[in-house]
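We give the chain.
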Amino acid sequence: MTLLWIVLFTLLGGAASAGAAGALLLVPDRLRERLLPSLVSYAVGAMLAAAFLGLLPEAFEYPGTTPQQVTGVLLGGILLFFVLEKFVLWRHCHTDACAAHGSHAPLATARPWRAAGTLVLVGDSVHNLIDGVLIAAAFLTDTRLGVLTALAIVAHEIPQEIGDVAVLVHSGYSRGKAMLFNLLTNLPTLIGGVVAYFALETLHGALPYVLTLAAASFIYIAVADLIPDLHRRPEPAATLAQVLLIGAGIGTIVLSHLALEHWLH
């Protein structure tokens, strides 16, 4: 029965968060184009807050880990995603023959947005895998705790996935592909939940390091891919709007964590 609860709530949670994010794709094209810069700013705040206020604190507090271990994995993770982005860019250049421009190619040509979209999918998949593990752990403790944890995770994921869909569309994905890939990134939630049910003790030992890798991916995406794009609009009015929207993304994640603590207690 516990396994059934885990499967049900990991599927429902993923469908709910992906559905809410996919609603962005139903917005008319012209309106969506006007909303995208705002949603990218929002995504920066949500990703940084999820990394620094959610994932990393959990990794630091995990029994048996040291700050040096966590920060070492964080540093290695950032380097890993740098190499991954280089590989994505290299493949993109070979496909579009942009390598012929050499090292003096314009930044917009040499660094396509599709790399950011790919990294979002990787980071979101890892994050959702961990969500599945957390849901399973809660259900193995108490069914009521599992339900509340699943609901809180959905509330936490919706604003972040809205930002992720914005990044995917801005990266050049069609509406259909953005919705499909965003939905597929929620499958690791189910996988993490089922695997954790059968091998929770083994997964617990690796949990803080997987959390740290997920944090590294979100930090790298926000700092290396999204923020430079925001700097293309340096005028005061646009900058103020960006700061407010980044703050809104951070605030949403903070409120979701407070709701989680309230629901669990």
Observations:
- Residues 94-112 have pLDDT under 50 and may be disordered.
- The first helix runs from residue 2 to 22.
